[in-house]
From TrEMBL:
Catalyzes the condensation of iminoaspartate with dihydroxyacetone phosphate to form quinolinate. Binds 1 [4Fe-4S] cluster per subunit. Its EC number is 2.5.1.72. It holds the Pfam family NadA. GO terms for biological process: 'de novo' NAD+ biosynthetic process from L-aspartate. One of its GO terms (cellular component) is cytosol. The gene is nadA. This is Quinolinate synthase. It catalyses: iminosuccinate + dihydroxyacetone phosphate = quinolinate + phosphate + 2 H2O + H(+). The keyword 4Fe-4S applies. Belongs to the quinolinate synthase family. Type 2 subfamily. Its main location: cytoplasm. GO terms for molecular function: 4 iron, 4 sulfur cluster binding; metal ion binding; quinolinate synthetase A activity.
């Protein structure tokens, strides 16, 4: 059996030999973030993916992320080391339910959070991430939008854009949605000096009590630039790694012990090593679906 050190060396060797690029989501375990070429949120990873000239793109994250990168780069080999690392929120809506939702509210544009399947993206008008959701919704004509699948993010956008009505699907992130308002009150008492930075996937009553609300990239940027020295982080615990690495003199606490996404933690260094070695766990998307979904993804990337 290989030691962790040998495994890391092998991953580095295979990466060079095969001209592979490793993209790691910032919810991945620290060891994986350390061996990755690019670490970031979904938007950063997809923007960087289209710029690389690697022959193999290995995405360490969850299924919808690898699938969207494959749609942007159909001629590259895109690997997802653990096939069953999925996003439960993405599974809360499918094409049939979306068609039904659209027929209840005809002629209203559908904005689809990237945490969704290729088929659902193909049935939507434009995608968004938590970094660009407000901008995307503002860019659309008319007073109403349908937002899928995250109700918490939809409610957040609705409050940010008073002139528009955001009608949300009732999906949620099983990780962020577990944070309770009482936990915010408790950390305020324990760490009165700290700023609370929360992700808009958290419940609205948690978001309302945060000092700053943003995507993981925005949270990392805010903490780095802030003059404050202590922060309570209301997003998945994986981001603590970059935060502590970038800011050795600042203190970071997690808002809630619930903030761990089990799907994001399924991938190990060994899975990455095996996927690279055998060039397996490749992601494919049916061409008809890809062409339709790509319109929604490219619409988003143009506005971002
Ligand atoms: O924007 C990201 O990085 C996303 C979509 C993260 C998540 O919560 O899955
Ligand atoms: Fe899905 Fe939530 Fe995990 Fe992101 S953190 S992959 S939204 S379950």
């Amino acid at each position: 059996d290989m030691t962790e050190k040998e495994m890391i060396q092998e991953i580095q060797r295979l990466k060079k030999k095969k001209n592979a690029v490793i993209l790691a989501h910032n919810y991945q375990i620290p060891e994986i973030q350390e061996i990755a070429d690019i670490v970031g949120d979904y938007l950063k990873l997809s923007q960087e993916a289209v710029k690389t000239n690697g022959d193999i793109i290995l995405l360490s994250g969850v299924h919808f992320m690898a699938e969207s990168i494959k749609m942007l780069l159909p001629n590259k080999k895109v690997l997802l080391p653990v096939y069953d690392a999925g996003c439960p929120m993405a599974e809360m809506i499918d094409v049939e339910k979306l068609k039904d939702f659209k027929s209840q509210y005809p002629n209203i544009p559908v904005v689809c959070y990237v945490n969704s399947s290729a088929e659902v993206k193909a049935e939507s008008d434009i995608c968004c991430t938590s970094s660009n959701a407000v901008k995307i919704v503002k860019s659309l004509p008319g007073e109403k939008v349908l937002f899928i699948p995250d109700k918490n993010l939809g409610d957040y956008i609705d409050k940010k854009i008073p002139e528009k009505q955001v009608i949300s699907w009732e999906g949620f992130c099983i990780t962020h949605h577990r944070v309770r308002e009482g936990e915010v009150d408790l950390v305020r008492l324990r760490h009165p000096e700290a700023l609370i930075l929360a992700h808009p996937e958290c419940p609205p009553e948690v978001v309302a009590k945060a000092d700053f609300v943003g995507s993981t990239s925005e949270i990392i940027k805010f903490a780095g630039e802030s003059n404050n020295n202590s922060f309570i982080i209301g997003t998945e615990m994986g981001v603590l790694h970059q935060l502590r690495k970038n800011n050795p003199n600042k203190k970071f606490h997690l808002l809630s012990p619930a903030l761990i996404c089990f799907n994001m933690k399924k991938t190990t260094l060994r899975d990455i090593y095996l996927a690279l070695l055998n060039e397996e766990k490749e992601i494919f998307v049916e061409e008809g679906i890809r062409r339709k979904a790509l319109k929604s993804l490219e619409g988003m990337l143009e506005i971002s």
